[in-house]
Specification:
Blueprint: H1 5-10, E1 29-36, H2 42-55, E2 59-66, H3 71-79, E3 89-93, H4 97-101, H5 110-115, H6 124-127, E4 131-132, E5 135-136, E6 139-145, E7 147-151, H7 152-157, H8 167-177, H9 192-201, E8 207-210, E9 213-216, H10 221-234, H11 250-255, E10 261-264, H12 268-275, E11 283-286, E12 299-307, H13 315-326, H14 328-338, E13 341-342, H15 355-364, E14 367-368, H16 376-381, H17 384-393, H18 398-413
Parallel strand pairs: 1-2, 1-3, 12-14
Antiparallel strand pairs: 3-12, 4-5, 6-12, 6-13, 7-10, 7-11, 8-9
Helix pairs in contact: 9-10, 17-18
Length: 418
């Protein structure tokens, strides 16, 4: 994956003309694309490249695979270069777009989004972070979000015949499962992504912007209600109050048995089965329930957007690549190949055959992302939300701790305040 896909293509005799000269001696223009490691399979990239170059006889693709480690600094350096010589299209994490849009170094793709790319059907959790004011810089590519992974056998043993549709049903069912030596749910105390969904469902936010300033809002009544639900659900298991879902990795905890549910991306089921093959046919999935049965709960949506640097040597060619990768044909192909959620709500039916991905797609339709500001990275660097959650789960007053955490969020988002 680290070698250029171009090198793989150029060894094939039938593709030699696509790697240099067109018939008649006209040279193709090269479009350099940075994609992240493991975002797409080698087979997908091969097929996409062949199709794109066939449809665009004057262009050739130079796809370069990047590592996530250190990518922010690398992208920032590329965006500062003079025109040409750098990437023309870059895959970025959806919540990273504000980091790169700051300073005017990304191309404004608003017109293409409205005219050609059906922006009204995009998943909100991918589209919103890619927007700054009225301008669209990040174009949704694929999404992944949390669902509930559960043990079918433990549900049956507890007399639960269908997945819960509301949060009240979820609490009641989890209470039944939390017996006979089993944990009703394993929910780490600092899983702030899951908490965010509960806060959003109540009408709250992690932070809000008012008069051009961002303020932490964990102390709002709505956000406190979300934390209260988290507290009641987390108590129906033995998740540690002072650790997140990676410490220890919850796949290993679930694989160890005696855990009825976890909240995670569906792909984690593969790691669970690798560690405990006996669970292969015992795992099921359902969307995180919402307050009412009419729609699943709101979830944090992760995934990737595609951006075009302002310093690209050929914005027309770059947008052609973005349009093809994010269009219905290849976005659907990618979702099926990699078990992702497609970038548009109208494409959700493409993954109906996979239970975990279908549950993920149902939640993604109501997905959200972290506050749309470049400074949010500073909040996560020394995350006060985690400390807040631990203190509340250990018995501290929620309102007092929420005010403390909100002040820290405000200070991080507005460094000259506090």
């Amino acid at each position: 994956m680290r070698r250029r896909l171009l090198a793989l293509l150029c060894v094939t005799g039938s593709l030699v003309s696509a790697c240099g000269m067109l018939p008649g001696g006209h040279e193709r223009k090269t479009v350099t694309v940075w994609l992240m490691k493991d975002s797409a399979s080698k087979d997908f990239l091969r097929r996409f490249t062949e199709d794109f170059e066939h449809a665009h006889q004057d262009l050739r693709l130079d796809i370069r695979i990047q590592e996530w480690t250190g990518i922010v600094a690398k992208v920032r350096d590329a965006l500062k270069k003079d025109t040409g010589g750098g990437p023309d299209v870059i895959e970025v994490g959806n919540t990273q777009v504000p980091l790169y849009a700051d300073g005017g170094r990304l191309a404004d793709l608003t017109l293409e989004s409205m005219r050609d790319w059906d922006k009204d059907t995009w998943l909100p959790g991918l589209a919103q972070p890619g927007k700054d004011g009225n301008k669209q810089y990040g174009i949704p590519w694929y999404a992944a979000n949390r669902v509930v992974i559960y043990r079918k056998d433990l549900f049956e043993r507890a007399g639960i015949t269908r997945a819960p549709k509301t949060r009240d049903e979820w609490l009641a069912d989890t209470g039944k499962l939390d017996s006979a030596g089993n944990q009703g749910i394993y929910l780490a105390g600092q899983d702030w992504y899951t908490l965010s969904g509960f806060i959003w469902d109540e009408g709250g936010d992690l932070a809000r912007q008012k008069d051009l300033e961002w303020r932490g809002t964990l102390d709002s009544p709505a956000a406190l209600r979300g934390m209260d639900f988290y507290r009641r659900l987390q108590a129906l298991g033995d998740g540690p109050a002072d650790a997140d879902e990676e410490h220890p990795p919850q796949a290993g905890v679930f694989a160890g048995g005696k855990v009825a549910q976890i909240v995670a991306v569906p792909g984690l089921a593969q790691a669970i089965v690798r560690q405990n093959p006996a669970l292969k046919d015992k795992l099921g999935f359902f969307p995180v329930p919402g307050p009412t049965a009419g729609r699943p709960g709101t979830v944090f949506t992760g995934g990737s957007d595609l951006v075009v640097p302002q310093n690209t040597g050929d914005q027309f060619a770059a947008t052609a690549v973005v349009g093809a990768l994010t269009g219905a044909k290849w976005d659907t192909e990618l979702a099926r190949a990699m078990n992702y959620v497609p970038n548009k709500t109208t494409l959700a039916g493409a993954v109906d055959g996979e239970e975990g991905v279908a549950a993920m797609a149902a939640g993604a339709a109501h997905g959200r992302a972290t506050p749309n500001t470049p400074q949010w990275a500073d909040v996560e660097a020394d995350n006060p939300i985690k400390e807040y959650m631990t203190r509340v789960l250990d018995g501290a007053d929620p309102a007092t701790e929420a005010r403390r955490a909100s002040r820290k969020i405000t200070e991080a988002l507005t460094p000259d305040v506090g």
